[in-house]
Amino acid sequence: MSFSVTWGVHNMTGSFARFVPPLGVAVVLLVLAIGFGPLLHLPSMVILNTMLALIILGCLAVAAYLFVVCNRKFAAAGTVVMAVAIWSAFYLSSQAAPWAVWTVLFFVAVALIAYDTAQDTARKSWWPLALVRVFFGWAWIDNAQDHFRVGNWFVGDGGGFAQTASGAAGRPATYFLDPLYQGFLRGAVTPNADAWAGVTACGELAFGLMLALGFLTPVAAWLSLWQSSNYILMKGFLSHGAYTDKVFFIADLAVMLTGAGLVYGLDASLQHHVPAWFAKWFMGLVDVERVGAEASRLGRISPQPT
Fold it and tell me: Which of 24, 92, 209, 237 is deepest in the core (most CB within 10 A)?
């Protein structure tokens, strides 16, 4: 048996197999979301209000866990501030400049979390990963609130989303996947555009928030990859208009493969306290990685089998 610091590039990227359990969780969440919204034909505002309630309650629960179990008081405070930011983005009156308010609160929350989770971050020099994760998380959330306030996705008939989906379903096919995806749009999405608009925007909000917090990052990354793929297919893979979505896809993939949630994110602190099964299925971590991260954080050498 040889000895080396476990935490390194190999364990940050790891084998792709460790991302399979979070993929399973992401698929289950997608099935639940589609079943809750489009299959039940729920109005988009019902979907949005339900998601916002779950997000705020979830943030408070995570904050309590961080405060009581992880002893990360600033991270807990940051998570609460993030809940307030999300509330402001959707419920604050348009006369109160909600975009400015929620954005300021967002970055205050991120700063508090980064400050407190620094002591659990094994590779502090990998801070650019945190910047990428936070920026694209913010961008997803900003997209969601823009759909709500500007894009008219929640007016009862799908609004801007319905127009985009109808246009995508009727455009000429330019790629071999286009006929299949356009059939999905015509058969499932456009007849129930209001519910799909709600699920789509709420998806952006939920996994954007998770990316920004660095919370269950592999699950959030899988969901964001799904969303980016849908936007690319909707616009056409070969379309110039899909280049932004391709950038999002590449960034989300990089966030997942590099374990960016473990760099100044909540995952860095939570990994030392959550059960092994939770770390495996929701964070893509196995025991040897968690032990190695702890050893590196404390400046110790951990055993590595030859």
Answer: 209
Task: Compute CA distances 203 → 8, 81, 85, 141, 221, whole Å.
Answer: 32, 21, 17, 9, 12
Neighbours of 112 (CB within 10 A): 21
Structure tokens at 213: 């917090």
Contact 122, 296 (CB under 8 A): yes
Identify the three-state secondary structure at position 3. strand
Distance CA 83, CA 160 (A): 27
Each residue's pLDDT tens digit, 217-260: 999 999 999 999 999 999 887 777 788 999 999 999 999 999 99
pTM of the model: 0.89
Q: Which residues neighbour 257 within 8 Å (Cβ) at sequence distance 6 or greater?
A: 13, 19
Query: Which residues does 170 contact at the CB level (< 8 Å), separation at least 6?
Result: 182
To which residue do tokens 């110039």 refer?
A: 240
Using an 8 Å Cβ cutoff, are 260 and 214 in contact? yes
- The Cα–Cα gap between 105 and 109 comes to 6
